[in-house]
Amino acid sequence: MKAHDILTRQEIIQLMNKSNLRATVLLVSCWTGVIAAMLVVALWPNIVTIIIALLMIGGRQLNFAILMHDCGHNSLFKSSKLNQFIGTWLLAAPIFSDMQTYSRQHTTHHKDVGTDQDPDLGNYAAYPISKASLMRKVLRDLSGLTALKLWFYILNTRHPSQKSMVKNSALLRGLAVNLALFLCCYALNVPWLYLIWLLAYHTTYFLFLRIRHVGEHAVVPNPNSGNMFENTRTTLSRGWERLLVCPVYVNYHIEHHLLPSVPPYNLPLMHSWLIAKKAYKNTPLPSGYIAMLRGVVN
Length: 298
Fold this sequence. Notes:
By secondary structure, the chain is mostly helical. Helix content is 63%, strand content 0%.
């Protein structure tokens, strides 16, 4: 199934149109959400505001990851150089990621989704799982064990190579940006506030990242099919879900696999056109992420 089998050439051209203004709004709103959550905790430090901040910041950190993904596709801003700079420094570095490495793996994912060559296979191949298994995964995420596993990978430099040099470069960028964030908190006389960012990164971020991965490809109609309407999932979302587990229209994942170069802000329009053309007539669209999770457990 190809995009031109469903959409007209003019529709595809319209969907591929990039807007620096809309991209900037997404970027600024992401950072604004982080600042607002931290500001609330600074003004009213209590267990309720801290929990809310951990949820909000974890969702914004996922937002960073998704916008980094879009910059890797060169689909967020019009300029390739701008996508590279923004993606590398303002999106990947805060969450200790490397956009170039991610982009190479993600290109393979698009080509080999559902096959043994898919680098993302480990994120969804084991499903469906039991409720008990899902709860264990959730507890590992919220306890920081999942993040600890990532740190072991990042800091493992026993075998010097080009791969380890790339990891070191990403780590240095991450440390630089996180130091800048800490110094901002320090300058405002609330250095402890940086711990909220750090705690969210080690807990809620990885939980929301897991839910995102499960929602995209786990327990789909036919995981071995070459048709994205069978090997990929689009999940209809509610407002609170878009704040936490599916920011920046990432829930429109069939649409993304159909045309990976479409900017994220055009995916809702693409979805509405596919609905009108009855492209989903044999494809289930879960009504929310709770419904989706119910469908991936035994």
